[in-house]
Amino acid sequence: MVASIGNLAITSSDVEQEYRFERFLDAEWPPPAPTPTALASAREHLTYQVLLTREENPGPADKAASEKSAAERLAALHKEYPHPEDFQRALKELGMTEAELLVRIAQQDLLMHLIDERLRPAASPSDDAVSEYYQSTFVPEFQKKNGSAPIPPLPEVEGGIREILLQKRMNELLDQWIEELKPTTNVRFHTF
Predict the structure, then answer these.
(1) At what angle do helices 98-123 and 36-53 cross, to 10 degrees?
(2) Packing angle, helices 84-94 and 12-25, rounded to 10
(3) What is the pTM of this model?
(4) Residues near 48 by Cβ (< 8 Å), separated by ≥ 6?
(5) Dist. CA 79–CA 65, nearest whole Å
(6) What span, in angstroms and rounded, lies between the C-alpha atoms of 45 and 37?
(7) Within the chain, which residues score under 70 in pLDDT?
């Protein structure tokens, strides 16, 4: 056992399967040998999935939307493998059927929807934060990469900057939320 969440145990084989699943979704097959850091990351992902799954209560419309999104992602994933037989071989080596894969992808989509719904409103950056990022980060990085090329005005890049800041803040809020959930379910990590 490498983690426990209440009465639920996460085993090293669960973590290795999660690592392999993540590599499969990235069309990185066969997966490279996992590093200790990669396994720790997979363990965290599994823990977060369990914690957040307990928080979600999707309605029929959410489930239908996630199933549709999963089917689209599966179709795109097929295209990431050079040949259809490569995809099927990797799926078989992963130990999953396409139906199981669809369920797993739909579950991920539901979790992403929950996170987005819960955190996006609180993560919206202020105009001042956008302006500050433009001046302190965007402009210097642009000049470093592009030399004397004209710097795009803020209105042209504002949408992209807002999204960068939004995602950064959502990640911070997600980390806080997970930390708040851990004590309520007695989460413990154990050494591999």
Answers:
(1) 80
(2) 170
(3) 0.80
(4) 178
(5) 22
(6) 12
(7) 192
